[in-house]
Write a structure and sequence with these properties.
The structure holds 2 protein chains of 2 kinds. Chain A is mainly alpha-helical. Chain A is built from 15 helices and 2 strands. In chain A, helix 7 packs across helix 8 and helix 8 packs across helix 10. The radius of gyration of chain A is 19 Å and the shape is globular. Chain B is of the alpha/beta class. Chain B contains 9 helices and 10 strands. Chain B is globular. The N and C termini of chain B lie far apart (38 Å). The chains are: A mainly alpha, B alpha/beta. At the A-B interface, helix 8 and helix 9 of A face helix 2, helix 3 and helix 5 of B. The structure holds adenosine-5'-triphosphate and magnesium ion (MG). Chain B: Involved in beta-(1-->2)glucan export. Transmembrane domains (TMD) form a pore in the inner membrane and the ATP-binding domain (NBD) is responsible for energy generation. Chain B: Keywords: ATP-binding, Nucleotide-binding, Transport.
Chain lengths: 306, 243
Amino acid sequence: MPNASKHLLFILAPLVVVFALLPGVYQNHLLLFNFVIFLILAQGVNIIYGFTGYLPFGYVGFFGAGAYGFAIMVMHLQTPAPLAVLVGGVVAVALGLLLTPLLRLSGAYFAIANLAASLAVLHFVANPALEGITKGPYGVSLTGTFNPTHAYYAAVVVMALTVGAVIYLKNSPFGLALQAVREDAVSASMAGVNIIKMRVIAWLASALVAGLAGGIYAWYVSVFYPDNVFSGEFSIFAIVFALFGGVATITGPIVGVLILYGIYNLIGFTTPQYFQLIYGLLIMGLVLFLPAGLVSLATRRGWHVP
Amino acid sequence: MSPEQNSILKVSKLVKRFGGFHALDGLSFHVVPGEILGLVGPNGSGKTTAINVISGLYAPDGGEVVFDGASSGGVASHKLVHRGINRTFQVPKPFLSLTVRENIQVALAYGGATGTPPSIAELLEDFRLKEVADRPAADLNSAQQKMLDLTRALATRPRLLLLDELAAGLNPAELDWIAGRIKALAATGMAIIVVEHLMGFIEQITDRVIVLNAGKEIFEGTLATAVREPQVIEVFLGGEHAH
Ligand SMILES: Nc1ncnc2c1ncn2[C@@H]1O[C@H](COP(=O)(O)OP(=O)(O)OP(=O)(O)O)[C@@H](O)[C@H]1O
Ligand SMILES: [Mg+2]
């Protein structure tokens, strides 16, 4: 069986089945929903960071743009929710296009510029002068589309598509070429790869999934403020989850979300006072001792991890 | 038809500046298909810079590069690769975390090679990379990494191949072997430019050499004549490569 089919069968299918069935047996649907959202965002970070090396510190900008794309369509055009989610994705891609000049920067400069861009978008959306369009700082309330059950399953669909995209990257010449660009852009161009085009495609793909996730998030919560959907926590969490599990793999970000977001919720519920402490120590330990993520524990032993 | 009209690459009055410094200062030469041209000169004379301009890494600041009848100066590298130019690097630049096989696969998939694509198995065999095919390129020694650079270049089916100190660091037996490989490539009609400090190696494989000094050509002809040329002797005299 080709690797791609194995990955679809043994990684994607179980993940989708589990998250499709869990709401029937587990009561905390919001928690399940958040897991799915972080699975999408961590894989979105994986696409841009794992495969091209750009660390998107302002990744939440796309998420917030998607949420507001959704809200504006619903508020002003009474668009049906699924269509509004797609528009959220398109808005995020448009923002991604606008930000393509950032791809000229490298390393920390890119990360900082991306963070600044996400803050700029937040302040643009939250500007009281735009109250007529975005409701400015006063937040939006979308009671007309409220349907957490549908929103949850939409999230599962987008998660499936996102993981499917990463499986494609892991198994295609296209994904190999992206990694080649990450490893050495000059050599990649001598392999015939159009490095600018490749970077832009990966960037827009990761913007798209975050935008769709943001649109679905708006659909699910239906009432939110700019600070909620542009919260830097989304970027930090998604990045930490992806790094913890191991980027440029299919399973790394999934494992990262399940373990770290699991721990986060356990500690957060029972002993919130220790949460920041334990989580902070965990992240430091990770960066110091496991820079290539949990999956590197296995790859170091010579096991292949998809 | 004169050899020059038959040329696959023609470089005329090429200038490349870094700040105020002229790394190439009016360089002109040509290569014909099937020819192995040596590009020699002391350290810093502009050999690598010439390769960088011809392969599209740098845009020239003056002069002209014509490849296969079309102007190619300042054209993006990947497009030149598709047109039929490729190269190796003085300091090898493989994709370190990808396996040897994957390194070659990228070039096979994106190199725009026309006709029957080269086979990975053959490339691995021909350049002694079979045993390490599934290891990350980072595990290879420097000589193997240079061979990997070369196989990546060959996977794109170049008609003009630029080799920047491919032989440096090889032992005598390996030198003989790679000389044979390069000649075999030229025999298929590939034009090859070889930058090398090892004069014995240059002597063994080239038909003609260009001697560069300070970004200018100071001699063109066979190596045997070059070493009797006073100007060439002066440039190399006392230099570390006078042998
Ligand atoms: N990117 C660059 N920026 C500034 N100066 C450069 C750059 N590349 C080359 N140079 C300068 O141009 C000159 C020619 O360099 P080049 O690398 O072409 O020499 P070379 O003939 O290949 O030498 P070597 O035999 O040592 O490899 C040198 O003085 C070098 O310092
Ligand atoms: Mg050089």
